Amino acid sequence: MITGASSGIGYELARVFAENDFDLLINAEDDLSGARQALATEGTIVETAQADLSKPGGVKKLYEQIQKTGRPVDALVLNAGIGEGGDFTRDTDLEQELELIDLNVRSTVHLSKLVLPDMVRRGEGRILLTSSIASTIPGTLQAVYNASKSFVQSFALAIRRELKDTGVTVTSLMPGPTETEFFDRAHMKDTRVGASSSKDDPAEVAQQGFDALMKGKERVVAGSLANKLMAYGGRFVPERAKAEAHRLMAEPGASRK
Fold first, then answer.
1. Could you tell me which of 141, 154, 174, 202 has the fewest CB atoms within 10 Å of its CB?
2. Domain boundaries along the sequence of the chain
């Protein structure tokens, strides 16, 4: 079961799972007919669930479809998420930020709460949560998004400990800037990070996430060496310095300077 699977990292994760003989139930708010056709291979069943997970009703609709399959969820991939760039006080839209919180945070908790008990009763299952290296950095000019990923990261690590010895594992996938539609949707195409040509390949990120999940790892910082240095080396950098570095990357119009 993979959310946010119509494009980007989510679609590439679905492709990797299909290549490894998993049947799929894929979700997105967008139309999934193209993704379904591309992912369906001989012997692989691909079902779709078009639902807006930023709404509680969308989460319930998705879970009802999971139940209708009559099959257990071997791997739950909670990848759906959106961003919003800009100055929190003067630029960004409150409704967009509340939707971001609902999708990135609330739906992650809601779906986990619905699916995890079934996994624990069976004594097996895997969960992959798409966090971000943004979870380690104060998100100047991207304040709500980075905070949402900090929540996801903390949540993943906490429930992993709670599920010790149950047969259920939780892995967090921490990509850096990746070549997807994220920056366009987050109104960040004209930032240094959004305009950069050195963003990671979503297929590579997805493969690394899948491999870490199947090995039962706690987390994986995906993509380039720079991401790993940022995630792990950043522990020794003052928060104010990281916040200023993030401002330089996320400043609107900076790509034209």
1. 154
2. 8-256
